[in-house]
Amino acid sequence: MKIGFTLPQTGAVAWQAPQVARYAREAERLGADSLWVIDRLLSPVDPKVGYSGGDTFPEEFRAILDPFVLLAVAATATERVTIGSNILNTPWYPPAVLARTLTTLDVLSGGRLVPGLGAGWSPEEFEAVGVPMNERGARFDETLDALDQLWTADPAEYHGKHWQVPATHSALKPVRRPPVYLAGFAPAAMRRVARRADGWLPAVVLPAMTDLDAAVNQPLAAIRGMAAEAGRDPGSLDVILRIYPTVRSESVVDDVAKVIKRVQDETDVRHVLVDLMYQADDVDQLLEQVDGILSAAK
Length: 298
Fold this sequence. Notes:
By secondary structure, the chain is of the alpha/beta class. The strands form three sheets. A seven-stranded parallel β-sheet has the order 5-3-2-1-14-13-11. The protein has nine helices and 14 strands. GO terms for molecular function: alkanesulfonate monooxygenase activity.
């Protein structure tokens, strides 16, 4: 089982940004297999849609660091670990800009980038970037098409309804075409995963949601069925599971380790990432939790 962790990005640890490189190096030394970022732009005062089914946003989102900058820091501070996003809100970014940034990160890391992409869901964030939220699905699909062109063709170009990339010389490519993982449980999101993703990014939330059949096995079976119907090899779809303890707990190390062992026994998942956003006041405390989880689960 590969075990990864989110980088110090939100809440109290966001104020310790100069410690991100040390955290990345130490997590790699301790045996972490991957390091991850999320993508939040705002913490709305009166959100039209609350976070994770609630009415508000977590206080931790009032301080958040840029995901691309953190990935660049992790890429240059480490040598072995995968670096990834879970997820980037893809419709916010013009495809040419996103392709340049992701290519840079893949080259910096020597081909270790796994871009996890999603459609986004916060109306205020779409308003802030000037992108109509009702176009997010179409813009997402066009971005995936444009990324394929910019990563594989030279010259490259793309012409869609929402995004345009005029014919351009595109000599610098990623070390290898980054495997694109997509998130989502909605029917349209699952169909997108089945049709065109290299992998899927489900999540389990502790302590509320620990039914691995409902959270992982059943939707994964549906996605693989749709992939087969689309003429793809369903076995080629990878899965990286986010384990997300949302209640601060002194037993978080044991709780996460137990879930990781269940995941190994009860699912096909062989790579998890642990999001400790709510669990620490400083980077040293985070590293203690990382060490404890790796020792208990590996």
